[in-house]
User: Which sequence fits this backbone?
């Protein structure tokens, strides 16, 4: 919600102070709303939408987001053609500063969600986010040749050290793909890919997954060794 409002503010050419003056609020208060540290109430959303000339259909969407702002977990029912039909995961990826993913059989299915429509949210950090994918050694041996072309391409184009291998003997932290998105001003958000359902968790609900992944990350092979294994098994073709 804050990302969309802030994107419209920039599009309209208003500074935070100018918007604060129009809203009869302090610049600090408006800044907190634009950065997501404070959820505007319905009256404030109405005022922001009026000042920023937000289209009617987007106003309804923003009111809906405000109503659900206290939720700590979300369920997304995927479709055969889209694991993120409402763009929620794509928006989160676009705002993250660092992303750690874990896959039991290969690359994460929703890596492509890092590409977000600028029409609905301002992708401030997509180009700067540090993405690291962790996977067990058995995933290299079992599924390397079966990865889809997009995932193989993303793996090959990853930054040095962008793929880290968890060696045999280290207990697998999860039985399903997990993504941990990290933000400058907020607690990590966890995304679980459960085939036909995507679960998004926040705060204490997320910590049950953040801690095991952190432990597995500490046991991963070095960036150089991991890169060598990946290059040997995934480096060609696709």
Assistant:
């Amino acid at each position: 919600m804050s990302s969309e409002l802030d994107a419209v503010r920039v599009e309209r050419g208003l500074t935070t102070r100018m918007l604060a003056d129009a809203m009869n609020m302090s610049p600090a208060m408006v800044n907190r709303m634009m950065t997501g540290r404070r959820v505007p109430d319905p009256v404030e959303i109405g005022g922001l939408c009026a000042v920023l000339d937000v289209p009617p259909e987007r106003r309804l969407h923003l009111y809906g987001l405000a109503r659900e702002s206290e939720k700590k977990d979300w369920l997304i029912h995927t479709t055969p053609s889209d694991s993120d039909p409402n763009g929620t995961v794509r928006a989160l990826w676009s705002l993250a500063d660092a992303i750690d993913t874990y896959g039991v059989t290969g690359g994460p299915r929703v890596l492509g969600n890092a590409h977000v429509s600028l029409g609905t949210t301002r992708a401030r950090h997509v180009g700067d986010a540090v993405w690291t994918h962790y996977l067990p050694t058995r995933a290299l041996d079992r599924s390397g040749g079966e990865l889809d072309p997009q995932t193989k391409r993303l793996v090959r184009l990853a930054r040095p050290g962008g793929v880290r291998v968890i060696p045999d003997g280290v207990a697998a932290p999860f039985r399903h793909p997990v993504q941990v998105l990290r933000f400058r001003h907020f607690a990590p958000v966890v995304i679980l890919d459960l085939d036909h359902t995507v679960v998004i968790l926040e705060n204490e609900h997320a910590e049950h997954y953040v801690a095991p992944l952190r432990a597995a990350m500490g046991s991963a092979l070095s960036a150089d060794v991991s890169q060598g294994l990946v290059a040997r098994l995934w480096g060609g073709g696709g």
Q: What stands out?
A: The two ends are 38 Å apart (CA to CA). The domain at 73-234 is CATH 3.30.870 (Endonuclease; Chain A).
